[in-house]
UniProtKB/TrEMBL annotation, chains A, B:
Protein name, UniProt field: Heptaprenyl diphosphate synthase, component II
One Gene Ontology MF term: metal ion binding
Keywords assigned by UniProt, alphabetized: Magnesium, Metal-binding, Transferase
Gene3D superfamilies membership: Farnesyl Diphosphate Synthase
Keyword flag Metal-binding: yes
Family: Belongs to the FPP/GGPP synthase family.
Pfam families per the UniProt record, alphabetical: polyprenyl_synt (PF00348)
Needed cofactors: Mg(2+)
Gene Ontology biological process terms in this record: isoprenoid biosynthetic process
Length: 326, 326
């Protein structure tokens, strides 16, 4: 946890409790993995998904809520997210995550495989605790599957020279938007909000997730290592062709083909040159415009929610998060 | 599936249906992974866990059973087993499994990570389908966790020169016996057997699992590549010190220390020499005697089950499986 939440004291308190529960949940007899997991929990992730969950819970009916249940569901969401991060870092061979060494880089791929698996079981245990007998068990299983299929889509389209917006959005919808959407829906549902609010929450979460991912992908082309806390142009070098590149490529496919044909053999200089072309052809600006339109859809839906502090804070967070410029 | 089940026509039919369901369940848009999973399903694994599940279901009350539910639960058990196999092969760097190339060897570790994850989600989906609202959701989450902790224990004690029987049994209890035990219990429970039969099933499954693993570990010291369908002395070379070695070491620790001190650097010749000492010091025979005692415990408990075809077949299978000499 970091100081991102200082303007949101209620959420900050709830996220602290969520982290405490995660820390408790990952206690196992293998101390190496336990330490790695506690470090990951506290390594400065924003806990956005649990935060959106709690904001939507605020919009619901306090009388219908069980505090402990909400904390457990929030933890289940973050734990599922952590599991996918740990396994993604294996695929990406990532040295850094959230500014610290990844589990696969520090302890090796073997430990990373089991660490991710262990997180899946913790996720599963929390669901068995909180939603046994509810439809949401199925919704979670489906979300987990779509999330994973989104990751597989991304892996499958690596170094795809004619990557389309459709390919990109299909992957983003699964790997990112699915869990944001589920977080918002679960917040509304377990917070006791109406069916209409739950319907809106699902859509708002999806749009926030897509916009969030697009901004995140833009960072690969705009940030420096220090702010991003991971290598810049990492996606490009790894063959993950994201929206800025796709939008720029559509304007001048031929200019990119010589570089992209190199696939994994692209040099740092060629990657830098490619990124330069992405900027020249307005790929970054167009991607920002795209993200802004999607954010606007979310904000329009948020506007339809019943007036309350939760709604105000949700608006504030969405604007803060999706109009960042770092 | 192979012809192992030809003496058990009812079970064979149920296992065929289970495989069909698994095949249906793993249909995804990523054809590469789908193919890998279908191959794994049909690559000649004996489907022992679902088989024990069905045998215990036979002991129950047919009036209380739902055929489709039983097939789904059997599939969930095998799918969880497959998930752990796929991830274990990453850790072990195994080239072969069930006589065919492992997923990690054929498609790389990256695909293997996601393939295992996908199997975890299929497992989870099947549970959401069949036991939502039941205590068994929790039991499955716990079993999955203990299974994984068993794997972690094994990884943690690799190349441990003073490996004890306690270390060994703790790992085996988790990584193997847990799922055998759950399979038998679920068969008894969802087959409509009494509480007493369920209690016996849990214990029988645990003993069968332990004996099965001990025999499996013995094979590493006795089989040739052709029958074993995977490299011989693989465990030893990988630092997985199993019961035959542990029992032999207890008799003459000094004789082993020079070889085991080499850890991962042990040569093929040294591994062969170590195996020879294991035989000389009766490690294999003592391990067999141990497995036989554990098998006997299972058979004694099976004897207490109500008389029926299921009980006869269970006795036959246990004897057939745990007195194999290949």
């Amino acid at each position: 946890m970091n100081d991102f939440w200082k303007e949101f004291p209620i959420i900050q308190q709830q996220l602290n409790e969520t982290c405490e529960l995660i820390k408790h949940q990952v206690k196992i007899r293998n101390k190496e993995i336990e330490t790695a997991l506690i470090e990951l929990t506290y390594s400065g992730g924003k806990l956005l998904r649990p935060a959106f969950f709690f904001l939507f819970a605020q919009i619901g009916d306090e009388q219908k809520q069980e505090h402990e249940q909400l904390i457990k569901i929030a933890a289940s969401i973050e734990i599922l997210h952590m599991a996918t991060l740990v396994h993604d870092d294996i695929i990406d061979d990532s040295p850094l995550r959230r500014g610290t060494t990844t589990i696969q880089a520090r302890y090796g791929k073997d430990i990373a495989v089991y660490t991710g698996d262990l997180l899946f079981t913790e996720f599963f245990e929390l669901l068995a605790d909180t939603m046994n007998g509810s439809d949401f068990l199925h919704k979670n299983a489906s979300a987990m599957k779509r999330l994973l299929l989104g990751e597989l889509d991304q892996m499958h389209t690596r170094y795809k020279k004619d990557m389309t917006i459709f390919d990109y959005l299909r992957s983003v919808n699964g790997k990112t938007a699915e869990l944001f959407s589920l977080s918002c829906l679960e917040g509304a549902h377990f917070g006791g909000a109406s069916t209409e609010v739950q319907r809106l929450a699902t859509r708002i979460g999806r749009h926030i997730g897509i916009a969030f991912q697009v901004y995140d992908d833009i960072l690969d082309y705009t940030a420096d290592v220090k702010t991003l806390k991971k290598p810049v142009l990492e996606d490009l070098a790894q063959g993950v062709y994201t929206l800025p590149l796709i939008l720029a490529m559509q304007k001048a496919p031929a200019r990119f083909s010589t570089y992209l044909e190199k696939g994994a053999d692209i040099t740092d200089a060629q990657a830098t040159e490619t990124a330069k072309m992405v900027h020249e052809l307005d790929g970054v600006n167009d991607a920002k415009a795209f993200a802004k339109r999607v954010t606007q859809k979310a904000l329009t839906d948020i506007e339809k929610l019943p007036d309350c502090l939760g709604k105000e804070q949700l608006t504030l967070l969405t604007e803060l998060l999706l109009q960042r410029s770092y």
